[in-house]
Design a protein that fits this description.
19 strands; OB fold (Dihydrolipoamide Acetyltransferase, E2P); 26% helix; 6-stranded mixed beta sheet; 10 helices; alpha+beta; 5-stranded antiparallel beta sheet; 355 residues; Rossmann fold
């Protein structure tokens, strides 16, 4: 297990837009860290710099007591010497090699003995439930089996650090759920440090011990998953994490709703630019029995819940209800707001904290 430390890391691919902008952060040893953010936010570039596949313009990268890169001293450790495991969207299994040959490939490169390769394969075969697949080729495996073989190959050389770049994005929804459980089990079993890149907030919430939400080359918030969800430090984080996303309203776009929400807080209107309310923190009641009235626009049953589209004086929002909605489309109903899902943001789009 190794702590990862990035110090004033900068990467520019040209032009005026920085891919990674003076990034300083520490990922503690043994953490499962998800770099979460939209396309182009710098998360994959950050991972590739940790891996040694991209050279930073300036800054420092440390893994434990080892220096991966330092613009101050000129040190730059090549990828093959960083003792890490890499996995990308494409599993890149050798099609002409069997499962056994793919998994022990890294050990071949290290000239390990046949007995050592057999021993390591048996350990990984058990860990990843690959029994009876030893002599199969990748084309003879399911997507989930290929995923497990790729993970086993990555772990065969006992790396200090695992780096994964959206490895689940090519899988169907059921298989993604299965492989998320597999990765979580792997981390709990091995206790290794993992840095995992994804744009899928559900993936990050279910897998990570810590989430780093990235935007425009910087980390806006690094915290435990539920802390990210319940206490977003910026408007960007609040909007990006959650499905359906947080309802966002200001006094120019939904004054009636904004005023009703503001009344639930202790903040002065002059200090508040934007308010947000989580869909599950909106309680649906009969007309005139809530904080405010609204009109039902749409009802989407999901099986366990109902996603209800509402209109309040021209402002559209979504609510999630575990109970059947108290009306049908075009009916007027009452809405109440729970404080635990209500957030206020200042003129700089930063979370306002109560005294």
């Amino acid at each position: 297990m190794s702590e990862i430390k990035l110090n004033s890391l900068v990467k520019n691919f040209g032009g005026n837009s920085l891919a990674v902008d003076n990034l300083s952060v520490t990922f503690p040893s043994g953490e499962f860290v998800c770099l979460l953010g939209p396309s182009g936010c710098g998360k994959t570039t950050t991972l590739r710099m940790i891996a040694g596949l991209e050279r930073p313009d300036s800054g420092e990268i440390f893994c434990g007591d080892q220096t991966y890169f330092s613009s101050n001293t000129g040190e730059y450790l090549k990828t093959e010497k960083r003792n890490l495991g890499l996995m990308f969207q494409s599993y890149a299994l050798w099609p002409h090699m069997t499962v056994f040959q793919n998994i022990v490939f890294g050990l071949d490169m290290k000239n390990e003995s046949s007995s050592e390769k057999d021993k390591r394969f048996e350990e990984l075969e058990k860990l990843f439930q690959l029994k009876n697949l030893k002599n199969r080729y990748p084309s003879e495996l399911s997507g989930g089996q290929q995923q497990r073989v790729a993970l086993a190959r990555m772990l065969a050389v006992n790396p200090n650090l695992l780096l994964l770049d959206e490895p689940l994005s090519n899988l169907d929804s059921n298989l993604r759920l299965e492989m998320r459980a597999e990765l979580k089990r792997l981390h709990q079993t091995l206790g290794c440090t993992i840095v995992f890149v994804t744009h899928d907030q559900m993936e990050a919430m279910t897998l990570a011990t810590s989430i780093a939400v990235m935007n425009k080359g910087i980390i806006e918030q690094l915290a435990k998953p539920m802390e990210i969800y319940k206490n977003p430090k910026s408007l960007f984080v609040a909007k990006f994490v959650g499905s359906p996303q947080m309802n966002i309203v200001d006094f120019n776009d939904g004054e009636q709703l904004a005023s009703s929400l503001l009344n639930k807080t202790k903040f002065d209107k002059n200090n508040v630019k934007t308010l947000g309310i989580r869909p599950e923190s909106i309680k649906l009641t009969s007309k005139d029995n809530g904080d405010i009235n609204g009109t039902i626009e749409t009802i989407q049953p999901t099986g366990a819940d109902w996603i209800v589209g509402l209109n309040i004086s021209g402002k559209s929002i979504f609510a999630i209800s575990s109970d059947q909605p108290p009306g049908n489309e075009n009916d007027i109903i009452g809405l109440s707001f729970k404080l635990d899902g209500l957030h206020t943001f200042d003129r700089n789009d930063l979370k306002l904290e109560a005294d």
